[in-house]
Predict the structure.
Amino acid sequence: MEQPANPADPVRLLEPDGTLRDDPSGLDVTPELVRDLYRWMRLTRRLDTEAFSLQRHGELGLWAPSLGQEAAQVGSITALRPTDHVFPSYREHAAALVRGVTPAQMLEQWRGVSGCGWDPAALHLHAYTVVLAAHLPHATGYAMGVQRDGTDEVVTAYFGDGASSQGDANEAFNWAAACNAPVLFFAQNNQYAISTPTRLQMRTPMHRRARGFGLESYLVDGNDVLAVHAVTREAVAHIRSGAGPVLIEALTYRAGPHTSSDDPTRYRDQAEADAWLARDPVARVEKLLDARNWWEPGWREALDQECDRLGAELRSAVQAFGPVELGDLFDTVLSTRTDLLNAQKADYGDFVAGFEEVAS
Amino acid sequence: MTRLSLSAALNSGLRHVLEEDPKAVILGEDVGPLGGVFRVTDGLSKDFGSDRVIDTPLAESSIVGTAIGLAMRGYHPICEIQFDGFVYPAFNQIVSQLAKMRARTAGKVPLPVVVRIPCGGGIGAVEHHSESNEAYFAHTAGLRVVICSDPQSGHYMLRQAMMSGDPVIFYEPKRRYWEKGEVSSDLRLAPAFDRAVVARPGTDATVVCYGGMVSTCLEAAATAHEEGHELEVIDLRSLSPLDLDTVTASVRKTGRCLVVHEAPGFAGLGAEVVSGVTERCFYHLEAPVLRVTGFDMPYPSAKYENQYLPDADRVLAAVDKLLEF
């Protein structure tokens, strides 16, 4: 895809007012594609707002909202094959939803009943990674395995502008380039690393830094789901052909707080948030659907109902989590229980049983 | 049986692994044509190719990080960290990722990764080349931490580590790399790699040690024998999990226990052994459990290390103290 004349301008197909640019660069923008992307964004937004509410009700220990970043995630994950392995950080709820993580599985880690919730191998979606950029070398290593297996899979890792400052990110970029690993580094530049704005985080934009490592790179309007989809499609084809790793920097905005514990009013003003709100990724697609009259009769109402069902499913999932048993955790530390773990499990079991005897 | 140096015995072990396990890959700095700075991977790149013996960028965090990714993909990586003091950049990957992935995914993502680290002093090296950092990793649940002491244990334990299915921090005492011993490659004869062994039987006191200190303690036991005292020397081999059964069986017999390691003593492995022995052998002990360790200072410059490192004389002085009770 042609980069705009000014390299600082991101690739954009859909204007904030819903106007579709003439040159979709090979992307066949059909009503079905637009509705499909819109559906995933709407479902993610519902998941996100519902989970945030659940956190406020004390049902989740923490939640990291994806509000405002739906286009960056949906546009990219839908450009991958379901068998392309994905390494998310911790805000990729859209990517997880598209990959088939159920609402209940999605909440497990935030509820505190497990460390992951889904089977990474079955969904080709790794566990969320909280330590910033630690998963980027994992993606590179996984891609080295793909190389050795001789398949054409593409490994994708999501990360943010803050994570790009970590040594692991820069090691992974360099390493992937040096061994031509089939990996896509997808950066969601959401403008803030908790409270630190991107201008204090880096001097050189990520997509330009990538070129220095020897990665192909793109800058894309991350609130334009069609542009993200088109750019990712092209990047993935590039990687799949064996031409080497790519970095995509998607310019977007974390519309909500960093997590449910954060207070963004302390470090950014409303005028800035409002300016980004005018570029809301979901509203933008609605304008296109309106302008082209690409809604099918009853489709929007059906989607509203699907969102409501998802919300209800999340609420009932939270209620359904039962008590957890510490005893199970002794069994998965290593491949076999050690003398120490055996003794601790037995002692803990006796301790608990002692209370039960007293109670009876 | 073949007479090999520790370095050659490890090389032989790696060769077995690469032959028997098509998913095994070695990765590290200079492990290819150079054969590693200690030549432990000598000739493997030539025989198995650069796809299986991978010369990597100089980036320790990513050596472990990419190994984690390779393991997720079904490969069995063996990382080489060039020197003990260089493992710190990889510390995050080891303790926050490698160690915890199996547990946090309820067993769905095992990470069979072996991280080989030459360890300890005694070779007159410059700074960051002589450290004993085993306690950091032994403190982290989800890792196996083992250390060989001679060519035979090196050969067996490396192959067993690769077969364990768990992340293993595999220490090699670099000052023993060139010491030779008889090596059998028949794994059926090998004791389990998470078990301690009695390196020398005795009746008067138990000396618990590991890695580079085993030879030192055996030397001390030989001298003690001449002086009429029979020391039982236990080579721990596995630092996590710790085989306290073997240790306590010995201490119940001898009634006295000394722990020897070259890492600084404070919050070191020795403290863990002392605690376990005290708890399990309280009524059998004739004396308090003592330790001989490196001092609690950054590893000193090379000309000081003969004074810093426990030697047979320091071990014997502590044994005398034990026997006086």
Residues 6-20 of chain B form the longest helix (15 residues). Chain B touches chain A through 49 residues (CB under 8 Å). The two ends of chain B are 44 Å apart (CA to CA). Chain B is about 35% helix and 20% strand.
